[in-house]
Amino acid sequence: MVAASSTLETAALPGNRGPAESATLVNAANRAAFAGPIREMHAARKQVFVDQLKWPLPVTDDAYEIDEYDTEDAVYLIVQDAGTGGHLGSVRLLPTSGAHLLGDKFDALCEGGAPRGADTWEITRMVTRPGLPRAAAERVREQLSVALIEYGLASGIARYTMMTHMAFLSAVLAVGWDCEPLGLPVQMDGVAVGALAINVDTATLGRLRDKWSFGGPVLRLDLSHPAIFSNSVLAA
User: Fold this and answer.
1) Is residue 233 part of a domain?
2) How far is Cα 147 from Cα 123, in angstroms, rounded to an integer?
3) CB-based contact 91:126 (threshold 8 Å)
């Protein structure tokens, strides 16, 4: 694999406060420097997925949604407040070559089984901070959506997998990703759930940047931590 800078331009900025219009790559190598935003991410996940959506998920200290997939292998893309560095939104990525939600617990959603491989990663737990104005939350989701494609292109990822409630499918498709179903929807606890693959390519990146008026890269690599690539396929 090649380093990100040889695949596509990314923002390389030091420190743990995100500039406007960016998403920061956080993994095991630099996670300690982002302890505040990570903690706020888990709190937002609890508020949204447990309190609002009533998903039966584990809660730590009655405040944080943390599950068995928040491991050293997890990579997070986090949009931060430009002034305070606080968490505005985030998404979790996991390599499908190891333990991941779709393959471990929802394999039946995929015809022939959940895709696995070094070039296939899973997206889960996309969330924005509760209480953000609607327009601000939408802009955060746009930043995350572009950063996902940038990270994929920089990392040699060919596609992402994800699962979604079918009630949210139109919102997922409206993003503009190149999606394809992995199987037919399945009723689970009275709710229709399906799995999707999102293809990663330069055409999608250009389309999304143009659609949302991003003049340059959104993904921010915190190069103040040289080991940032140690547990991701960005490693050479």
Assistant:
1) no
2) 12
3) yes
In the predicted structure, residue 127 carries a pLDDT above the cut 60? yes
CA-to-CA separations, 139 to 55, 180, 211, 213, 224, in angstroms, rounded: 25, 24, 12, 11, 27
Between CA 66 and CA 43 the distance in angstroms is 9
* E strand spans, the chain: 11-12, 23-26, 59-60, 64-65, 75-80, 87-95, 120-128, 159-165, 178-181, 186-188, 191-199, 219-221
Q: What range defines the domain where residue 135 resides?
A: 4-227
Inside any domain, residue 148: yes
Rg (C-alpha) for the chain, rounded Å, is 17
Question: Tell me, what CATH number does 13's domain have?
Answer: 3.40.630.30
User: Domain tally for the chain?
Assistant: 1
Kindly report, residue by residue over 153-187, the tens digit of the pLDDT: 999 999 999 998 887 777 888 888 999 999 998 88
- CB neighbourhood size of 8 (10 A): 15
C-alpha 4/C-alpha 147 separation (Å) is 13
Cβ-count burial 130-146 (b if 16+ within 10 Å, e if not):
eeeeeeebebbbbbbbb
First to last CA, the chain: 5
Please check whether residue 190 lies inside any domain of the structure.
Answer: yes
Angle of the 202-211 helix axis to the 134-155 helix axis, nearest 10:
160
Q: Which residues pair with 187 in a beta bridge?
A: 192
Tell whether 75 is covered by a domain.
Answer: yes
